[in-house]
Every structure is written in structure tokens, then in C-alpha cells.
Amino acid sequence: MVGISVKNFSIAFGETQILENVSFDVEAGEIVTILGPSGCGKSTILRAIASLQDKYDGQIFLNEKCLINDSNLCNKDIGYIFQDYALFPHLNVKENIEFALYRLNNIEKQRRVDKLLKQFDLTEHRHKQIHELSGGQQQRVSIARVIAYEPKVILLDEPFANLDTILRNKTKIWLKKIIKDLGLSAILVTHDQKEALSMSDKIAIINDKKIEQFGRPKELFEKPKSLYIANFLNRINELPHNLLENLGVSVSFENVGVISIDNIKVTDNKDMIKASILDISFCGDYYELHVSLDDYDKKELIVKTSCINCLDNNDKECYLDIKKDNIKIVSKT
Amino acid sequence: MKYLNKLTISSVILTLLISIPALIILVNIFSPETENWQHLKDTVLLEYVFNSLYIMVGVAFLTTIIGFSTAYITTMYSFTFSSFYHYALILPFAIPTYIVSYVYAGMFDMTGSITLFILDLLGKENVTEVFFMDIMSIEGAIIVMSLVLYPYVYLICKTYLISESSSIIDASRTMGLNSWQIFTRVIIPISRPAIVAGTILAVMEAVSDFGVVDYYGVSTFVTGIFRTWQGMGSLEDASKLASMLMMFIFILILLERFQRRNKRYRSSGKDFAPIAKKRLTGRKNLLANILCFLPVFFGFILPFIQMSYWFVLSYEDVIDEDFITLLIQTLSLGIGGSLLITVLAFIFVYTVRIHKNKLSDTLTQTVKLGYSIPGAVVAVGVLSFFSIIDKALDIFITGSILAILFGYCVRFLAISINNYESGFLKIPQSYDDACKTMNISEFAKLRKVMLPLIKNSAMASFIVVFIEIIKELPLTMILRPFNFDTLAVYSHELVGQAEVYESSVPAMFIVLLGIISVLLLARKMIKD
User: Fold this and answer.
1) Where is the domain boundary, A231, A249, A282?
2) Is the CB of B453 less than 8 angstroms away from the CB of A89?
3) Please, where are the H alpha helices in B89-187?
4) Which segments within B227-303 are labelled E, that is strand?
5) No. of H helices and E strands in chain B?
6) Residue B166 sits in which domain range?
7) In the A/B pair of chains, how many CB contacts fall below 8 A?
8) pLDDT band at B265, cuts 50/70/90?
């Protein structure tokens, strides 16, 4: 199995610096997700690893062997899944899958393609043109095409962006299994935190041209380094300083106390923190309340409840139970 | 140095070669005045300028009115034959302007078929009692050119209105504007870039025209170039005139680019919503039909019927062994020229695609300017360039097929490049990236991915360039080898010998080939 190491990667497009000294490692067999908002440069890292991007500073190592900063040289150990799948419309499913197997003899080519068609549940579609397939089937073909030439590392650029929610959830599980079964190292690029949390062994979150935090999903979720990370991975409320003091939580000026919207309980207990309800949104199996803390500078929070009957005074007021243990202290910057 | 790969080097060499005729012409503007030039200045130069400007203004006015109004009606309203007009309104493109002018002269001049018919019908003897103007005049030339060139405005405005106006019109309707207010306060202002772009194309064609003005006896820059070169035997002064005409054209291009600055022709990212066409009934339905029928009738049906009639009367006298040779010569020239251009254009566009450097892009844009240079100017530039080569190498290539093919390349590469560019736009960059990540060689990518995907654009380019070559008159007339005629040249020569009926035979072959190209263009429009 092959690992990847990105060291001090920096790149600028014209006058605009996109990334600055980005470093991270992908151990052999690991799935690492690069998470960040659109346009933060996460796909650029993938393109550089795949030698589709040159003119960058820093180094990229594939199993300790440095890749040359040259877009004319590609490494056959790397497979790339494109966001638009990049399937050739003039070729059918089988022809697309065998496209990169030009070095193999016909018998070996046939054997490998048949195996993949079966493995990816595409046998009955083998003679279909690409436009005759559904989005999910097209994605399976694009993955099969890459797996066909047996790369050691697979790079996935927003692979679920064109799928609907149900198919996306199914495909995530399926793809993770394929990657693990084949023992590939993988880098996934996405802006969807749920996708990142469920797919990855590790996550690198990009903010302001740098990796702000890199680690295991649980670690990032439970111990976010900054307000940005906490906000990015979870729906949180920033609590006012005087409320934190009243709850016995001490916070320095550079830090803030945050709490997940799932961890604030709406109650009818009048001993708790009183809040005015500004708006109620029905969200299926729960309600989302937009409230303001009357005694704490009218600080506005978002909270969830499944019990609308707990609301008092004609839906104008409610009481919030905030447990000290659920509060996380994170850096403001 | 990083730019200097094989394809880019080929593009640089080709661009330099193709630019030489235009550069020679431009340099001539600074050449010292000769006696002939002084004579031209004292006698006809002012007339050339005035007539060329008059034609430009007249054609701009008429093509805008006809082109924009028909585009507006067919886009916004649904009426009895509206889907027929969608295609019929571009049919005048199928007939070269000079052929329509011969036919109109044959119908409406002093002894024209329709003139005589009307005189007979009304019992009059004098033409001036029936017609307010002579067709063989500058005004006649303007009308004829406008009838054939209005589709430039129609096509560009229609495409623009279809893609841009849907939500804007809906918004205007919800704000309570009536149809007239929407037309004057919304449609005209938002369509201005499209109107100007279409009109400038029509004007550029008009000012470059040779066949119409030559036959109608109107002195313009183009006829001046011919007379100076053939009558006075002065290539240098013809070049000087050509350089002035080129300046005219470049000013038009700059004007178009200036008015287009900061303006988008396409909406960004919003979903396309078709315009909800208003159904016309009763008198309004009839009026819409008449307004759309008139340009089709005068621009295509009438000249086509008249030409067909003359064709039937005279084809037996014209089609003989020599005519077949002429036909074969024309087709060979068309096929050879368009093949060459289709291959060269591919090199330019593919270089830009795979190397993505500014140099390749600039080279392609430079080559595309060739189409805006009038055929006569290109021909004079090629003649000047090839005479230098003749003298330097002591050979004679000026009057060879090579010269004429070179002239076609200068003028028509832009058409082919445009076809490829729109074709390549539909091939995502991720296909190139996918090939690279799969270690597919550049040659294999070209053979297995790019060529199969671009072949339709190549085919379209081949057909359109082929038709342009078949129709081209001034460039072919000046550069053709001795005793080498084409359908266009033969038709012009017959008209010059007052054999208007006979001229319809080669003209009919050109028109039939033109109709095929218009149908192909329409099919491509539907596909796109």
C-alpha cells in the first residue's frame, strides 16, 4: 500500500494566493478528506497530486518518492475520479472501462473488464451509451474505469456532488467499502461536513489558505480548535460571556464558549434560562426555534425541540437547559 | 521558451504567413504618393469614400429594420406560419448578393421582365412613370444588399432574444407594462449589443462587396481597387486603396468591440426558460405573416423563381462539356480549399486547447481577423506578397492555384476556427485531465477522444467553408490562374456580357449548394 505526503504546498493564481504552506500525510490505506468551502483550493491540491497542476511550491511524495512539479508527467499509481465523471460520450460502458487498459492483451483486458462489470453491477449495461445511464450508474462506471488500471492511490473530487440525497448516502457506504477492500489510499475533496465525517479516517479542514486542523473525525468534532472548525463541523451557538460566567465556565478573552444546537434542551422549567421565541420552523421530526436570551443582551440562539407543547405563553417564551459539560471552549480565530 | 512546442511553432509560422498580405497592405498606407494616386485623389477617391459610406449607412438602416423586426415577431409571437418563418427568414443567405443583384436588374431595369410587364399592364411607355427609382443605382444596390444581408441581424437578434429575454419580459409583464412599453423600454435597450453586432456584420459584407456595385456601376473602394489594378495596372495604388478600405473595416470592428465592452451576450448560470409566446389572431396574425413574408419573398422566393425560369430557358445552351469542366474545377477548388482550411484551423484551435497559453490564443485571434478583410483586399495583399516571392526566387506562383488557396486560407480560416471553438467548448476539460491521469498519450487522446468528439464540428466547418469558396467572387477573380474559371466568375462574366439569362445557370448551381448549407446551418441550430 502507498502513502502520500504533502509538504509546504503553496500555490497562487496570478496575484491571488490560494494556499500557503499546506502539509499533511495520508498513511497507506487511509481515507483522508480535505474539507473546506467552495473556492478554498482543495481541488487544486488533488490536481497537483495527480500532476494536473504545476507551478506550485512545496513537495508531494508518493511512498516517499517525490513527484516532480510538472504537469506533463503523470503517475500511473494514481487514479482520479472527476466531479463530472469525465466519461467519454462516444464510447459505451465497456469501452470506457477498458479505455486505459491499452497495454494489456485482449484476454487479460476482457477478464479485468468482466470482473469490474460484475463487481460494480454493470454487466447488463455494458453496451449502453453513457447518456443512457442514471447518475449513480455513471459514477460507478467512472470508478470502475479508474480501478481497472489498478492504481494505488485514488483521488476523489466531490464525487457525490451530482447525486441526490438517497443515492449519495448509499454510494458513500459502497465506495468506502470498495476503497477499503482494495486497500487503496484515498483523498476525498468535499465541502460537505457530513460526507467528510462519515467517509474519512482523517480530515483536513482548510481555512484562510491553510489547514486549520487535521485529525480523526471524532477528535475534530469533539475538540474543535477554533470557532471556524466548530461552526464548520456542527451547528453551534456561541454563548455570551456573562451566561458562561453564570454557568461557572471561565473563558479567556481570546476564546469563546460554544454549544451544539442539539445539546440545548427546551423545557417548561421556569428555573432555567428564559428566552423569547422569535420564530418557529417545522423541520419534520423536530422544530427549530430562533430565540433571544432576554437576560443576556438579547443574544440570539438556534435550538431544537420535538415537544412544541413545552412552549409557554402562546409560543412567545421558552426556557433553555444548558449543561456546563456540553460547552466547548474554542479559540475565536 | 516554455511556449515553443511543435504545435505552437507551427501556429506561429502559419499566422505569420497568413498575416503577411494584410501587413503588406497596411504598410502601403505610408508609401509615397505616385502620379496615379494623385490622379485618383483628384478625381474619384472622394466618390469612393462617399459611396462606400452611403452604402454602409443605407444597409445598416434597412438590415436593422428588417432583421430586428422579424426576429422580434418570430420570437415573441405565435402565428399561423411562425415556425415556417423561423427557417425561411434565413433563406436569403443561400443566394450570393451579386446573383440577387443580377436577377433584380433583369427584372426591374429599363428592359426588365417585371418592368415590361407592369408597363404593358398599365399601358405606359416610360419607366419613370411607374418606378420612382432606377434599380441600377446606388440606392438599388443598397436595397438588394439589405434584402440578402438582413439575416445577419435576424439570426443574432433572435438568438439573443431567445436566450436573454424570457425572465426580463416576464418581470416587465408582472410590473404591468404593455407590449409596446415592453418593446420600447425593455427589448430595444437590452438588444442593442445584438443589433449592433448583427448590423456591423451586414455592413462589413456590404462594404466588401464587388459583384453588386460592379454590375450596378457604383464606384466604391472595391471597384476602385479592381479598376486601379486592372485598368491602371498599378498594384501599388490598388494596395493603397485596399489599405484605406481595411482601415474602414478595422474601425467597424473596433466600434463593435467598444460597444460590447463590459456587456455580456449570455446570462450567467441562470436556467434557460423558453419565452411564453403570445398567440396572434385575426388582423394581427395577418400582419405578422405579411411582415415576415415580405423579406423572404423579396430576398429569396422572387429571385429564386425568376432565376429558375431563366435557368429553364437557357440551360441547354450553357451546359456543355466546358461547363462540366468548369463545374469540376469549382468543386475541386472548393473541396481542396475547405479540406486544407479545416485541417489548418484544427491545428490552431487544438494548440490553444492543449497548451492554454496566451501566445496560442493571440495567434488564433489574429488569424480570425482575416475574415473581416474584404476578398478584394486579401487578393491584392496575396498578389503583392507572391510577386515578392516570384522576384526573389525567380519562379511564378502568383497566378497559380497555390495563390488562390492561400487567399482562401487568409479569408476563411476564421469560419473554420469558429466552428471548432464552439465544438471544443462542448468537450469538458476533464476529458483531457482524465486521459492524462490514465497515462494516455497525446496522440492516443487525439485519435480516440478528441477526433471522434470534434468530427461534427470539422464536418460543419468543411461544408460552410466549401460554400464560401464556391460563392467567393472578387478574390477568385483576381487570383485565379489563367483560363481557370469558377461558377461565380463565369456567372459574373456572362452578366457582364449582357447574358443575364445564361448567367442564371452557374448561379443556380451556386444557389443550390447554398441552400444545402443553409439547411445544414438550420439543423445545427436545432441541435445546439
Assistant:
1) A231
2) yes
3) 97-108, 113-122, 138-164, 166-174, 179-182
4) 278-279
5) 25, 2
6) 42-216+280-308
7) 50
8) very low
Residue B192's domain is classified under what CATH number?
Answer: 1.10.3720.10
Residue of A nearest to B437 (CA): A74
Assessment of whether the complete model's pTM goes beyond 0.90: no
- Positions in chain A short of pLDDT 50: none
Same domain membership, residue A255 and residue A225: no
Amino acid at A166: I
Q: Looking at the structure, tell me whether residues A166 and A252 fall in a common domain.
A: no
Instruction: Report chain A residues whose CB lies below 8 A from the CB of B448.
Output: 99
Per-residue burial over B437-466, b if 16 or more Cβ lie within 10 Å, else e, is bbbbeeeebbebbbeebbeebbebbbbbbb
In angstroms, rounded to a whole number, what is the distance separating the alpha carbons of residues B459 and B465?
A: 10
Q: How many residues does chain B have?
A: 528
A193 and A161 share one domain: yes
Is the separation of the CB atoms in B225 and B213 below 8 Å?
no
| Whether residue A182 is found in the same domain as residue A274 | no
The complex's ipTM? 0.80
What is the grid cell recorded at B528? 445546439
Q: Give the integer Cα–Cα distance in Å for A325 and A250.
A: 13
DSSP string across B154-181: HHHHHHHHHHHSHHHHHHHHHTT--HHH
DSSP output for A291-332:
EEETTTTTEEEEEEES-GGG-BTTTTEEEEEE-GGG-EEEE-
A308 reaches B (C-beta below 8 A): no
Under 8 Å between Cβ of B479 and B286: no
Domain assignment present for B351: no
Do A179 and A223 share a structural domain? yes
Mutate to test the interface with A, among B2, B438, B442, B451 (most CBs of A within 10 A): B438
Q: Around Cβ B313, how many Cβ atoms within 10 Å?
A: 13
Q: Of A218, A216, A247, A267, whose CA–CA distance to A329 is shortest? A: A247
Residues A192, A43, single domain; the answer is yes
Residue in A with minimal Cα distance to B430: A86
Q: Is residue B135 part of a domain?
A: yes
Q: Residue A63 contacts by C-beta under 8 Å, 6 or more apart in sequence? A: A2, A3, A28, A152
Looking at the structure, do residues A267 and A209 belong to the same domain, yes or no? no
How close does chain A come to B14, measured CA to CA in Å? 26
* pLDDT tens digit sequence for B317-362: 999 999 999 999 999 999 999 999 999 999 988 988 888 778 878 8
Print the domain residue range for A277.
236-331
What is the distance between the alpha carbons of residues A128 and A142, in angstroms, rounded to a whole number? 14
Touching check for A74 and chain B: CB below 8 Å?
yes
Chain B nearest CA to A211, separation (Å): 26
B451 touches chain A (CB under 8 A): no
Last residue of a domain, one of A231, A251, A275: A231
B168/B15 Cα distance (integer angstroms) = 43
CATH code, domain carrying A10: 3.40.50.300
Within 10 angstroms of residue A64's Cβ, the number of other Cβ atoms is 8
How many domains in chain A? 2
The reply to whether residue B430 touches residue A82, judged by beta carbons under 8 angstroms, is yes
What is the spatial distance between Cα A143 and Cα A131, in angstroms, rounded to a whole number? Answer: 17
State pLDDT tens for residues B87-144.
Answer: 889 888 888 899 999 999 988 888 888 888 888 888 887 777 777 778 889 999 999 9
* Interchain contact, B428 vs A86, CB within 8 Å: yes
Among B360, B372, B508, smallest CA distance to B2 is for B360
- Kindly state whether residue B198 falls inside one of the protein's structural domains: yes
CA B330, CA A229: separation in Å to the nearest integer? 72
Overall number of domains in chain B = 1
The bridge status of strand A202-207 relative to strand A185-190 is unpaired
pLDDT-based confidence at B51, cuts 50/70/90? very high
Are residues A99 and A182 located together in one domain of the fold?
yes
